[in-house]
From TrEMBL:
GO MF annotation, one: methyltransferase activity
UniProt keywords, alphabetically: Methyltransferase, Transferase
Keyword Methyltransferase belongs to the record: yes
Designated name of the protein: Class I SAM-dependent methyltransferase
UniProt keyword Transferase, yes or no: yes
Domain Methyltransferase type: 42-137
EC number, UniProt record: 2.1.1.-
Cross-referenced InterPro entries: Methyltransf_11 (IPR013216), SAM-dependent_MTases_sf (IPR029063)
């Protein structure tokens, strides 16, 4: 998969800004509470960088990084993050362009269902997490996730792998799920 083209990227940016602000705020609140001063955060599938922008406003002390498959999305993220010191890269979750043990928190929102190889993704997510680092993946609640759960269970200590339903404040049922794990 080559990612979004320029026109699709702009359309996604407009829709995400309007429709997903509440989810991004929720994730940013959780990420801000889960990180210590000056820690490094990676947003996998950052798209137009909206989650990182929310997190940067809450926690300007964090070292923000974003990676996306689409160079067009990274260009939009650069524009959306102009006031934040964020490092952005084009890359794939199955081959992340970062050294081992780089991040205290790795987060992803609404991209897991697009990952073609859950086993490679789980291996890479574990590789870039620092010891005791946290992984938090958010996606639609009804995504078929058995292969990702299995892949996470094989890479992370079983008691730390969890799935919970996330319900937006204004919606009567949970729309999203969060998969979380902690590195050894």
């Amino acid at each position: 998969m080559s990612g979004f083209g320029e026109q699709e990227s702009r359309g996604y940016d407009r829709r995400a800004s309007k429709l997903l602000g509440g989810l991004y705020r929720h994730i940013a609140d959780e990420a801000a509470a889960a990180t210590g001063a000056g820690e490094a955060v990676l947003d996998v599938g950052t798209g137009p960088g909206l989650l990182l922008a929310h997190l940067g406003r809450r926690r300007p002390d964090l070292l923000l990084h974003g990676v996306d498959l689409s160079p067009h999305m990274i260009a939009l993220a650069r524009a959306n993050l102009a006031e934040h010191a964020a490092e952005l890269s084009v890359g794939d979750v199955g081959a992340l362009p970062y050294p081992d043990n780089s991040f205290d928190l790795v987060v992803s929102s609404l991209s897991m269902h697009e990952w073609p190889d859950p086993v490679a993704a789980a291996a890479e997510l574990e590789r870039v997490l620092r010891p005791r680092g946290t992984l938090a993946i958010y996606d639609f609640r009804f995504v078929r996730d058995a292969s990702m759960r299995s892949a996470l269970g094989a890479r992370f200590a079983a008691p730390t792998v969890r799935r919970k339903v996330v319900r937006p404040r204004w919606y009567p049922i949970g729309l999203y799920a969060q998969w979380s794990a902690r590195a050894a």
